[in-house]
Amino acid sequence: MSLTQISFDDGEALLDWRALTEALAEGHSCPKAEVDDTFLYRGKDTLLSRSAWIDGLGIAVKTAMIFPDNPTRDLPMINGAVTLFDDATGQPEALVDFHLVTKWKTAGDSLLGARRLANPEAQEILIVGAGTVAGSLIEAFSAVWTQARIRIWNRTTAKAEALAADYPGVTVATDLEQAVGAADIILTCTMSTDPVIRGDWLRPGQHLNMIGAYRPDMREADDAALARAQIYCDSFDTTLDHIGEFKIPLDSGALQRADVLADFYGLADFPTYDPSAITLFKNGGGAHLDLMTSRHILDLWTRSA
């Protein structure tokens, strides 16, 4: 079996945001994934290897090399690759660009949650944060909510302005509380360890979709936001005991496990949009989503050949 190599540009030319969310939904109809992570360290440098196996879909190993000093060498801080293996034989099938899989998996994960929970006629989308993920969210959500205005808020306004300049029609918000109150969909992609979204800013009909927190000490919404919302996530296994968004309030008693109503393995339990409810979705990520995304990319590549 020959090994297919898919570059960022070649893969991105084949992809569509709506189709990706359907592939992610279909992937969760397969048997539940087995996942595992491996970390190796050399001083400040890190090797992170995330693996997933889904019976019937295949095996993926996503390896990330994080070298913080690389920017001083004019090199990217993060490099890596995703290797996809055949489910039946274990033979390598494809080497897919790391940044391609990461971009589409991360934004596609949140987009699937929002497509199930948010107002399909949303007019105002707020993105809190102005890093790389924010750009991916602009592309993903504008592809579905074509009629919506998109605004960006960031602690450093100049960074929000720089990102907005890359996307015609996107504007910058300077007052976070006011911007949250006006938004139908709120997307958070910060590196905050302290909540940036307050529950008393929210109103019925809104959808809060959180991406940023990934460590046990990180969170983006306060206890009041959790208390007011109907809560959903992509995976119980990668969020409840691992990410501060849920782990901190679970440990304090402000949140109970039963308060997180469903994950993507229970997509049938995600409700249709309810204008009287506030919904909250936590994007925790995971290697199983990298596998589903990589398989979708390889399927598109094979059909286009």
Question: What is shown here, in short?
Answer:
The chain has 305 residues and is an alpha/beta fold.
Explain this structure to me?
The protein is of the alpha/beta class and 305 residues long. Helix 2 crosses helix 3 and helix 3 (98-117) packs across helix 10. The chain folds into 2 domains: 4-102 and 288-304, ornithine cyclodeaminase, domain 1, CATH 3.30.1780; 106-285, Rossmann fold (3-Layer(aba) Sandwich), CATH 3.40.50.720. It has helices at residues 8-12, 17-27, 98-117, 132-144, 157-164, 176-182, 223-228, 236-239, 244-252, 287-304; strands at 4-6, 34-42, 45-54, 58-66, 78-85, 92-97, 124-128, 149-153, 171-172, 185-188, 207-210, 230-233, 260-262, 279-282. The mean pLDDT is 95. The protein has 10 helices and 14 strands.
